[in-house]
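Entry 12.
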Amino acid sequence: MDFHFPQVFETIAEAAPDREALVFGKRRFTFRELRDRSRRLARYLVSRGLTIHGERSELSGHESGQDHLAIYLYNGNEYIEGMLGAFMARTAPLNVNYRYVEEELRYLFEDSCAKAVVYHAEFAPRIAAIRNALPQLEVLIQVADDSGEALLPGAVDYEEALASMEPELPDLDHSPDDLYILYTGGTTGMPKGVLWRSADIYVAAMGGRRLDGMEMASLDEIFEYAKNGPGIKAVQGPPLMHGAAQWVSFINFGMGNTLIFCDEVKRFAAAAVLEVIEREEANTLTIVGDAFAKPLIDALRRGERDVSSLILIGSGGAPLSANNKRALLECLPDITIMDGIGSSETGAQATNPSNKGTGVSTGDFAPMPGSCVVSEDLTRVLAPGADEIGWFAQQGRVPLGYLGDAEKTARTFPEIGGVRYSVPGDRARIRSDGSFEVLGRDSVTINSGGEKIFAEEVEAAVKQHPDVYDAVVAGRPSERWGQAVVAIVQLREGASATPEDLLAEAGKHLSRYKLPKAFVFRDSIQRSPSGKADYRWAKQVVGPAA
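Predicted 3D structure (tokens):
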């Protein structure tokens, strides 16, 4: 069965109308209230002319037949309403990185052809600075905040827009083919808009599978799943501009759970996260890898909050090292840590659960439906135990393509044996038991002395040293090696590990040829707000050939 998001969320709201769907500071919304507010936004978008221009059957995979709504917001109810309202209006929502400067912002708006934007007032000056260069950007919806920024000329206040409309679902022919657009992070190249059919991303990552991996088969099943859900209270740590955060949010909605946002939305503030867990007696927390885990561990060790209600910490989008998993379990011995892996181009692919009974590992994942490893030449699907490194891939529910880029669409979504795959660029092995060893993104692979070395593998080894707070690895041009492995390291406060100390620790986990040839120490490591390593920054730091 194929479903679209309006019918899914309408079914959930019918199943649990008076249950709290979302908590954000003093704001609390039931599923009925969240549905009605989203309907109002949808009707406003339709009233401003946002519509669909061509059905999916008329288009190629890299083409969109819908108008697009850019969501340029911090976390909050407006972000969720923006996504739902867009879907209800048959308008495709897309994420905007709120850290972008004007040049990056202009690129994204031009590339996405966004016709409308919903944005926090704080960002009004940036919108104003690029607006004249964006003739297609016709509809501006401004969300009030404490910045004091006035409405831009021609913009409408968000709450006033909602109040002007009735809470009725627009009478449109919603389709499972309607688009969900997710822009990649752009940490290794220019961001690209990944086009998904709603029906496919719903199953691939946004609640369309039960916990046993089977797809939802009917609206009745979706109804019962939400109505009889576990009643989990789920704290969302990362920003919703990050795909994994959107996915976890909708997975929780599908189970009838309550989604909770922290009061601090501009950065990951561990103390604020623990405060909201204690206040709401929350059960789960979502983070993004080591960048979120490290400050969380420091805050937990201070023991200032009662977080005994917590039963699970989920992580995805960036590596979570074994050392930090152990530290989390030392602080919270009764929790499970669910480490997940996937990408904008694949959805969720594999998981690695850890608890005090199983112990911890990193890079080792159990497959989810459709995940596989294909050969380097893209001609074969590798069998378990194959003695070769291939590409981590996904089949079945995969994206249509990259917006406006037919060539990259063809490269990333090849056919093998008549089956279409998504192969976004991660390297992996498949073990004899069918589990995956995921080595990292090929675009940040270092070729040193003719050997391929995966940056994330070296990072994980360096982070095993207890003095290391964070690390990122990049290649430096070298006459001798072609590229030399260089580790950029942030030590813990008061720590004094030397390059020799770090090299000795890394040598316990890596072959000699993979070890860093040099170390660069920094007070902080630059990462995106979602916790992902910024490899363009890392290459600048390691510099040219020594």
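Annotation: The chain has 16 helices and 28 strands. The CA atoms of residues 289 and 318 lie 5 Å apart.
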